[in-house]
Design goal:
- This protein has three domains: 1-30 and 69-82 and 361-472, Aspartate Aminotransferase, domain 1; 35-65, no CATH class; 100-345, Aspartate Aminotransferase, domain 2, CATH 3.40.640.10.
- 43% of the residues lie in helices and 12% in strands.
- The protein has helices spanning 3-23, 37-41, 53-64, 86-98, 109-126, 140-155, 160-163, 182-189, 210-222, 245-255, 292-295, 310-317, 348-382, 409-425, 453-471; strands at residues 133-137, 171-176, 197-200, 226-233, 258-262, 287-290, 303-307, 387-389, 397-402, 432-436, 439-445.
- The strands form two sheets. It has a seven-stranded mixed β-sheet, with helices on both faces.
- Strand 4, helix 10 (245-255) and strand 5 (258-262) form a beta-alpha-beta unit.
């Protein structure tokens, strides 16, 4: 493709992108294809000769788009937000055009130094102490793995990386029953084992019970086990419960245990002064992660990972083959030493674009508005006698169910599962579920970039009508 052809197609593609952003609300939110449908439309063999870009765009519209679930549709209320915004998309285009591999300072000094500055900006925006240093990871799962590996190495005196874990003894990691499954995956990868991940019971608000944590740690120490890391959550996946960081941190400090805080989605709310209470006890935190690619309008992937002990993090991951030795080592941040991958994208450019384009006050207004929509939805649900809210509404997630009279619990669970599928199959909105105390629970997340109260009101009317038609 020549430069002139690239310029022509790029302009066409920008028009396509702008049209998509303008009209995304008109697409069915959830893809309605069946397994294998897209696969069957793609040729079995690659072309032998060049094909025009126009044929790719035709197939994009006819084959790919019907199989896309539209996360940027304001009627997307499922899972968690994976928000994009025009400033972030524009920056992503520049990132792709530059094609920089930003593994160390030498390979793109601007990328390393912008990342360092953006992490300082974010640290101040969310209220972490200045002792924390940060790095951008691809996801909270990667960040949590990095935290657990660092905690493991620090607890072993940095011997496991060299000698293996055979002589370490039984290492234990603790989290609540509501903690994200990335912790289960991390303990497997770290060689600690799922058997040694201790799930702590939760209180009535679905947050970790600190006294149960203390009991588990005392019991493990009595057995000769090695308490290594506690993962607390600010905003659990199911209900956005807020674990009590101070109480948990005091226990970790008492027993010399690394405290990692997963604030993947809810962490963005920390830019609001009225939500700084979620971070009380921050002086006990060893590492912390939140995802601007969830609720800070920066498209995937961009996960902000902070630690107060960068030296231990680097010591856990660093490796120095001859081809990576540079004259600047020790004078700059070589971020390939701060996590698993060697290769790194120029993600900081997206953050820079978003924060500068909106400004902190507008970002606060947007997050605050999403929280207010959730509060309004909770009020609407509470006004209906045949619906009930099943968990405290803290930020932008509302957990509820349809609960008509005359049905037992098993029937009500079945009814809500049927309701969920029928709503999603309509293409008008997309919800997901969780299970709380054996109850099939619908989750509605009001945090898509462009969602409005009107979108939620229309969705709620459809939910009520669909539910009551199922009963009939």
């Amino acid at each position: 493709m020549s430069p002139d052809e690239f310029r022509k197609h790029a302009h066409q593609l920008v028009d396509w992108m702008a049209g998509y952003m303008e009209n995304v609300e008109n697409y069915p939110v959830k893809a309605s294809v069946v397994p294998g449908e897209i696969f069957g439309k793609i040729p079995d063999d690659p072309p032998l000769q060049p094909e025009p870009f126009s044929s790719l765009m035709r197939d994009m519209d006819e084959i790919i788009m019907p199989g896309i679930t539209h996360w940027q549709n304001p009627n997307f209320f499922a899972y968690f937000p994976a928000n994009a915004s025009p400033p972030s998309v524009l920056a992503e285009m520049m990132i792709s055009a530059l094609g920089a591999q930003c593994m160390i300072w030498e390979t793109s000094p601007a990328a390393a130094e912008l990342e360092e500055k953006m992490m300082i900006w974010l640290r101040g925006m969310i209220g972490l102490p200045s002792v924390f240093e940060g790095v951008i990871q691809d996801s909270a799962s990667t960040a949590t793995l990095g935290a657990i590996l660092t905690a493991r190495e620090k607890k072993s005196g940095f011997l496991i990386n060299n000698e293996g874990a055979a002589n370490m003894g039984i290492v234990r990691v603790y989290c609540s029953e509501q903690t994200h499954s990335s912790v289960d995956k991390a303990v497997k990868i770290a060689g600690i084992g799922k058997k040694n991940l201790v799930k702590i019971p939760v209180r009535n608000d679905f947050s970790m019970d600190p006294e149960k944590l203390r009991e588990a740690i005392i019991g493990d120490k009595a057995k000769g086990y090695i308490p290594c890391c506690v993962v607390a959550t600010i905003g659990t996946t199911g209900t956005t419960a807020i674990d009590p960081v101070r109480s948990i941190g005091e226990i970790c400090s008492e027993y010399g245990i690394w405290l990692h805080v997963d604030a993947a989605m809810a962490g963005s709310a920390l830019i609001l002064p009225e939500f700084q209470w979620m971070l009380e006890g921050r002086e006990y935190i060893d590492s912390f992660v939140f995802n601007p690619h969830k609720w800070l309008f920066t498209n995937f992937d961009c996960s902000a990972f902070f630690t107060r002990d960068a030296a231990s993090l680097i010591r856990t991951f660093e490796i120095l083959p001859e081809y990576l030795k540079t004259r600047t080592r020790g004078k700059v941040n070589d971020y390939r030493d701060w996590g698993v991958p060697l290769g790194r994208r120029f993600r900081a450019l997206k953050l820079w674009s978003v924060i500068r384009s909106y400004g902190l006050e507008e970002l606060r207004r947007m997050v605050r508005y999403h929280i207010s929509i959730a509060a309004s939805l909770a009020e609407m649900i509470s006004e209906e006698s045949d619906f009930e809210i099943l968990a405290p509404v803290t930020i932008c997630v509302v957990c509820f169910r349809y609960n008509p009279r005359g049905y037992d619990e098993k029937q009500i669970n079945s009814l809500n599962e049927k309701l969920n599928h029928q709503l999603n199959d309509s293409g008008k909105l997309y919800l997901t579920h969780t299970v709380l105390n054996g109850i099939y629970t619908l989750r509605m997340v009001t945090a898509q970039t462009n969602v409005t109260l009107e979108h939620v009101e229309r969705a709620w009317a459809r939910i009520k009508d669909t539910a009551r038609s199922l009963q009939a």
